[in-house]
Each structure stands twice: as C-alpha cells, then as structure tokens.
Amino acid sequence: MKSNKKIKSKRKNKRNLYLLAFLIILILLILSLLIIIFSTYSSNNIIEKKEIYAELIIWDKIGLAKNNTALILGGIKRNGLSTKEINLLNNYGQDVFVEIQMEGNISDFIYISENDFILKSGESKNLSFSSISDKDSEYGKYNGYVYIIIKKI
To answer: In angstroms, rounded to a whole number, what is the distance separating the alpha carbons of residues 92 and 95?
Structure first.
C-alpha cells in the first residue's frame, strides 16, 4: 500500500514539475513577444535620427573652433566653459518629440539646455550645448557623438 502511495506521489510531483516548466516557457515566450512588439513600435516612431560629431579639448590655452557640420566646442582650460548653440526647426508637418542622446567620453562634459521635449509643427528652438570642466579634469581631447532623435507623438 505504501509503495502505491509513493508511485502516485512521484507521478503527481512529475506532473507538477512539467506544469511548472510549461508555465515558465509560456511566460518567456510572452515576454519575448512583448519585447519584439515594443521594439518594432518604438523604432517605427522615429522620423529622423541626426548624428553630430562632438569634440572638446581641455588644455592650458583657450581655442575657438568654427564648424557647421559638427559640434566642436574648441579648447577650454580647467574650470573652463564653452557653449555652442544648435537651432532645431520642425519642418515635419506635425508636432514631434525630441530626444537627445550622447555617447563617447565627451558626454561627461556636455550639458544640454533642454532634452526630451515636444516641438510643435513649424516651431524652432535653440539648444545650448555647454562643456564644463572642473579643476581636476585631465588635459586631453574628448570626443563622441550627439544624437538628435525626432519621434512621432
């Protein structure tokens, strides 16, 4: 009689294990599907992604840089400041959401006047990109990219 109960108990435990494995696989499949749907939806929201090269030099001199295709902040001293402006014009015929991202070692030094905002159709906005170094900043050339991402609302 005891061995019969053990067999039934083992079968029940085995069934519970299979049910648990099935539920875990089902949850993983649902999560994967949601991630795919979300990534497809969010990438379809992007109207334009502008990549702008950015550069800053920290040294013991002050240098100016003029460039219309890149965000060249020039040379600044320690405890120095440099600011450049970029004008954004919404000519997309609809209100858009603007998101700014940065990558590279320059991102530790750049501060943006505004990020994650709505730009109405036909509206323009000046964005200030300020580079600030402190007294402990190492001399050297810092660079990277600024990405201006225009999304549908």
So the answer is: 8
- Which candidate, 112, 92, 113, places its Cα nearest to that of 102? 112
Domain covering 47-152: architecture: Sandwich (2.60)
Q: Give, in order, the Cα–Cα distances in Å from 78 to each of 40, 49, 75.
A: 44, 33, 10
Write b or e for each residue in 96-112: b if 16 or more Cβ atoms lie within 10 A of its Cβ, otherwise e.
Answer: bbbebebeeebeebbee
Is the overall model pTM greater than 0.70, yes or no? Answer: no
Summarize pLDDT for 69-88 with one digit per residue, the tens. Answer: 788 888 899 989 989 999 99
Q: Parse the chain into domains and list their residue ranges.
A: 1-44, 47-152
